[in-house]
């Protein structure tokens, strides 16, 4: 299983087509998702996008030759160590060579030496794609278990159009993640709350928090990739962040306030096997919401009376305790901590987990480098008796994988 303790090594082969510029974005997406990426271009590919770009993005040396780094037997080591090999774009020429098992460059030897899944993203002119030789090669490769993503029907280089356009980087990423993910959440219904609630004061102002929703969305995307059927209760998440949750098995329910989030979560949790409360929910809301904008002149903005919001996670745990949830439902809550003292943090986590009645508490270190609005996160996952069952830091996807692994092992 590809859990958080194992680095996922992905080789991205790049061959000589114009679509290589789109692979730049793919490499960024893969590294952003927390994967270790080594780029293996062909000589022709380097005429389209050069070595410095690949090295800077992947943070690994890049070569096309089997004669570099011979001490580490690089020509086979890359393929042996890979969890996945992607070739994007895959030219007609390289597809033919892969079919024939030709190994006259580093990409060829890597592909022969690997036992990992291979994903090709073909890109070429429509005539080249339709050509009987290419089609026969593709048929042979797929019969051997090689996976394909695309090509799409659309605009091609030089103004032509037809089948042969390389799949978009996001699609290739999705196909790659699907191949990598253990399908260990297949058949399970997961509900994730994500984002931050906003409690209106008047028509233009609200009490809010700095949660972007990235961690919750990463959890939703990773759970879907592992086979789960996912509902995201999304509180005020930007379209940009929500784009990562585009998956046929993810349903998004937008909400605004803590009360709306509570209603949506209670409804969704009634049929959920796993509930993850990653949203930052306001503890209090203004006692009254003004219909009209409050003005300075009226002196109405110097004081705000607050009332307490319902504790959603505690309500969900109580519901489960009363048997109003599927048998064996797992509930995960989050706690943001600013304390740098691990002993104090863990003691608070132990008490909070018990008070809320949840199975796991992901203690989120919110400081200058991690947490709210940041791309990276660091968590300690606290289970029964306050024991730290797992910890993870890095991208929010790496943290999501650790949380899902912890849920999986406790179920
Ligand atoms: C501007 C330009 C664009 C090209 N685009 C493609 C392409 O999209 N698909 C393809 O199969 N070949 C394309 N070719 C041809 C390949 O670059 C050529 O077949 C080359 O030998 C491929 O080598 P490689 O597979 O080792 O990278 C293109 C060539 C040029 C000059």
UniProtKB/TrEMBL annotation:
Q: Which Gene3D superfamilies match?
A: CoaB-like, Flavin prenyltransferase-like
The region called Phosphopantothenate--cysteine ligase is annotated at 190-411
**What sequence ranges are listed for the domain Flavoprotein?**
9-178
Question: What InterPro entries does this protein map onto?
Answer: CoaB-like_sf (IPR035929), CoaBC (IPR005252), DNA/pantothenate-metab_flavo_C (IPR007085), Flavin_trans-like (IPR036551), Flavoprotein (IPR003382)
Pathway given for this chain reads:
Cofactor biosynthesis; coenzyme A biosynthesis; CoA from (R)-pantothenate: step 2/5; Cofactor biosynthesis; coenzyme A biosynthesis; CoA from (R)-pantothenate: step 3/5
User: Per the annotation, how and in what number is the cofactor bound?
Assistant: Binds 1 FMN per subunit.
According to UniProt, the reaction catalysed is:
N-[(R)-4-phosphopantothenoyl]-L-cysteine + H(+) = (R)-4'-phosphopantetheine + CO2; (R)-4'-phosphopantothenate + L-cysteine + CTP = N-[(R)-4-phosphopantothenoyl]-L-cysteine + CMP + diphosphate + H(+)
Where CTP binds, per the record, is at 283, 293, 334, 352, 356
Q: Which UniProt keywords apply?
A: Decarboxylase, Flavoprotein, FMN, Ligase, Lyase, Magnesium, Metal-binding, Multifunctional enzyme
> Could you name the domain of life of the organism this protein comes from?
Bacteria
Q: Kindly indicate whether the keyword Flavoprotein belongs to this entry.
A: yes
Q: Where is the DNA/pantothenate metabolism flavoprotein C-terminal domain?
A: 185-408
Q: Which cofactor does it need?
A: Mg(2+); FMN
Region Phosphopantothenoylcysteine decarboxylase, as annotated, extends over: 1-189
According to its UniProt record, the EC number is 4.1.1.36, 6.3.2.5
Q: Name one GO molecular function term.
A: phosphopantothenoylcysteine decarboxylase activity
What NCBIfam families does the entry give?
Answer: coaBC_dfp (TIGR00521)
Q: Which family does it belong to?
A: In the N-terminal section; belongs to the HFCD (homo-oligomeric flavin containing Cys decarboxylase) superfamily. In the C-terminal section; belongs to the PPC synthetase family.
What's this protein's function?
Catalyzes two sequential steps in the biosynthesis of coenzyme A. In the first step cysteine is conjugated to 4'-phosphopantothenate to form 4-phosphopantothenoylcysteine. In the second step the latter compound is decarboxylated to form 4'-phosphopantotheine. Catalyzes two steps in the biosynthesis of coenzyme A. In the first step cysteine is conjugated to 4'-phosphopantothenate to form 4-phosphopantothenoylcysteine, in the latter compound is decarboxylated to form 4'-phosphopantotheine.
Name used for this protein in its record: Coenzyme A biosynthesis bifunctional protein CoaBC
Q: Which gene encodes it?
A: coaBC
